[in-house]
Structure formats: C-alpha cells, structure tokens
Amino acid sequence: DYYATPYAAEIVNAFTNILFLYLGVKGIRSCRKNGHDAIFQVAFLGYLLVGLGSFLFHSTLKYPMQLVDELSMIYTTCLMCYATFSFSRPRSQCVILGAGLLSLAIFITLYYHYLQDPVFHQVAYGVLTAVVIFRSMWVMEVTLRPSLQRSRSHAKSGASGHALTTSGETVNDRDLRILNSMWVMVAYGLSTFLGGFFIWNLDNKYCSTLRIWRREIGLPWGILLEGHGWW
C-alpha cells in the first residue's frame, strides 16, 4: 500500500476506475442523445457511482468508502433488474417491481452491514447479475427472433416479417442481423467479465507469489500482475 504515492493506497486499483467513470458519463450522454428511457440514465449514473466509490475505497481503504464501493454495485444491479423486468409491463406491475427491488436493496444493505462478510456481498451481487443477464437474453430472443416474436406494434398494423425495410432487407433478416450482433456483444461482455473475475481470484490465491514477481519486475510492467486491476 502507498508504494507509489501517499495519496492513494492501491494506486492501480484506484486509477483503473477512471474507465468506469468515463463509461458512466458516455452512457448517460448516449441515453440523452438517443432518447432512451430515464431508467437507463439512472443505471449509468449508478455505474458512475460504482467507479467513484471504488476509486475512493482503493485510495483510502476506509470502511465507509468500502460500503460505497460494494453497495453501489448492488444498487446499480437492482436498477438494471428494474430496467429489464419492467420492459413492456403496465405501470402497476412496475410499481410493485420497484418496491420489491427497493426492499431487497435495503435488506442486503442492512444484513451486509451486520455480517460484514465479503462473501455475502459477492453472492448477492452474483445472483442479481445472473438474473439481469438471463432476463436480458430472454428479452432479446422473444423480441427479435422471428420464430419467437410476440405481437408488436408493426404486427398489429398488419406489417409482415417479410416486408422490406428502407435498406432493402426483410424485417426478419434485419431482426436476425441485429440479434446476432447482440449475441456477439453478450459473448464479448461475458468473457471479459468472467475473465476479470478469474484473474482476480488468481490474485487472491497467489497473492504472495505475485507480490514477489511484481517487486522483481518493477515498474511499469509489474502493474500487469495487479490481478484486481484487471477485474
């Protein structure tokens, strides 16, 4: 700790969060530019908070900042749960969903503060993230795959999946092209996410060995062996 500067305890873990801050701002600007629902702007604001909280915690190693870091991950994932499950739902169901997720977030906060066990936080975050991922996959499929499509606005107006778009391709072909692109992004995102998690766990298991290697290699290349930084 504090090996590079007296102002940041874990400098690599702190400054890798600049990417989170950048992506949070970029996501908010993209939502505003393209007119997406406000819930997505709020979710990206949560993403921004995750980056800020993690930066402050790894800079100070203070318990209050640890709570900001870890609980903001829970809150942001709850927001994404709301965004994915409220899709095409009536307002009454959205209110019930929001109240349920708020209650869940409060329970996780209080119970985690009581236990102060990182494993509980990791399990809660992992379960919520898995729910968001699988729900998003399901929404992608039933919305875009022609064989699974439900009634949509253009179908109600008599449009056909074989109708041509302005680019000359059929609606079905367009939807399949978009769906395939989305699955590529899902595969890339999951491999990056799980790869970072795997490297972080290797860092936890072989911490002593990696610290020796980092000292032998020195700066700047020793930074590449900061496993938590990759996560």
UniProtKB/TrEMBL annotation:
Spans traversing the lipid bilayer: 6-25, 37-59, 71-87, 94-114, 120-140, 182-202
Domain of life the protein comes from: Eukaryota
Annotated binding of Ca(2+), by residue: E10
CC annotations in GO: endoplasmic reticulum membrane
Membrane topology of this protein: Multi-pass membrane protein
One GO BP annotation of this record: ceramide biosynthetic process
Residue sites binding Zn(2+) per the record: H58, H228
Cofactor dependence: Zn(2+)
Record key words, sorted: Calcium, Hydrolase, Membrane, Metal-binding, Transmembrane, Transmembrane helix, Zinc
Protein name according to UniProt: Alkaline phytoceramidase
Organism: Arthroderma benhamiae (strain ATCC MYA-4681 / CBS 112371) (Trichophyton mentagrophytes)
